[in-house]
Amino acid sequence: MLSKEGILRASLLIHSFELWGTRVIRGIGSVATRPELRQKGYGHKIVDEAVTDLTGRENTSIIFLYSDICTEFYLKHGFVKLPVAYQTAHNSVLMALM
Question: Cβ(67)–Cβ(95) under 8 Å?
Fold first, then answer.
């Protein structure tokens, strides 16, 4: 996400996975906001824009992510924590938006 002046405010990566039947599956990763620009809504905006784009234009059925820092951030965007049986990463929580 760039400002009008071309300054990078926030970024994220979109990961593509194989189709699961007819379902399109994507992942979001490496969500980051420049330290001096945090707490201004840029992280929320870039996640909202990515989810809107993925679920709309790409017709994505499921979006996965691993949260290393703050699961509450992603809960506000509709993501849910997956059951313990699916939690295989150390120090990260697997979450999904379905």
Answer: yes
